Each structure stands twice: as C-alpha cells, then as structure tokens.
Amino acid sequence: MEKYVSQLNYNDEVDDRLDRLDALADKEKESIERIAELHEEIQDLLKKKHT
C-alpha cells in the first residue's frame, strides 16, 4: 500500500510540473504573438515615415 501511495504522490508531482510547463508555454506563445504584432506596427510606422 505504501508503494502505491508513493507512486500516486510522484504522479501528482509530475502532473503539477507538467501543468506549470503548459502555463509557461502559453505565456511564451502570447509573448511571441505580441512581439510579432509590435514588429508589424513598427514596420508600418517606418513605411509611413519614408513615404
């Protein structure tokens, strides 16, 4: 029984870390998307400045 409980605790810890990794990946994706948007805005502003 102890071995079973130990395995459950281990699985919970692994699941927790995977959840945190997923959350970080989502934040990183949002950051990358925002950077791409800002890059486009900067490019548009530079085009307007040179025309």
Overview of the structural elements:
With 51 residues, the protein is mainly alpha-helical. The chain has one domain. Helix content is 94%, strand content 0%. It has one helix and no strands. The protein has one helix at residues 2-49. The longest helix has 48 residues, at 2-49. The N and C termini lie far apart (75 Å). The relative contact order is 0.07. The model has no long low-confidence stretch (mean pLDDT 94).
Give the secondary structure arrangement, pairings included:
Blueprint: H1 2-49
Quote the average pLDDT: 94
* Helix content bin: over 70%
What form results from the Cα inertia axes?
Answer: rod-shaped
Total strands = 0
Judged by helices, strands and strand pairing, the structural class is: mainly alpha
Radius of gyration in whole Å, from Cα? Answer: 22 Å
Secondary-structure element series: H
Tally the structural domains.
Answer: 1
Strand content: under 5%
Span between termini = 75 Å
Largest sheet: none
> Helical segment tally?
1
What low-confidence regions span 5 or more consecutive residues with pLDDT below 50? none
